[in-house]
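Researcher: Can you fold this with zinc ion in place?
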Amino acid sequence: MMEKSREIILEGIILRKVPFRETSIILDIFINKLGVIPVMAKGIRKEKSKNAGITEILNELELVLYKNPSSDWYIYKSAALTRAHLFEVDFKTGVLMQAAVEIYRQLIIPREDAEKLYELFLKYLQFIPQVKKNGIAIFWRFLLRLFRLIGIEFNTSACVNCGNEEVFAAYFPQKHGFICKKCFRPVHANLVFEISGEQAELFSNLNHIGNMLDKLQISKSTIQQINKILLIHLSEHFHKTFYLKSIELY
Ligand SMILES: [Zn+2]
């Protein structure tokens, strides 16, 4: 009875998988309504059963775990696969999914935000394989939604200086937003990241970019610049550097 009472059933998505010793693995699993937890799957690599492939990154699972009350660790008992999100997706789609994983792994997700961040993540994972062109813009939109959910909304419509909806000239990290062409002065040059007209237009359309994906032509330098600005926004708020390695492959 004691053993059974500690068994818990949870819904989660694998964010990270690290081999441990000869036959075990350590998983970071994003659990709906709970956040990211460390899970030890003992001896799982020696099994030749159907369980062997179940612990892949981005597998959505219904998990049976044990929790020792005196430890932060959860122990894997078994799992049923709900969906293998990376299974048979094309390379770029996989990269865009991994990019979201990277961001979530670097965030510290408070328990009260876990459920809405889980929903956002799942929606993104389900939507991104359907996008045929310019999926990167959907990743950016995902980040904007994430910013809003965690209370660091990124204003992509109004200038941080005058408050008007003017054409943006530059990103202003200290003010957490954009400065428009009318407000921009040479004195700002060392404090900001100047952006091109193409980039300014993309940013101001990002919240409803889904309708424009077929028409967009996004250059390599624009991809780099927009990624950089979105990561700086995160880094400024959390006072630590966020990185995205996966997206370099896009
Ligand atoms: Zn302005």
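Model: Folded with zinc ion in place. The radius of gyration is 21 Å.
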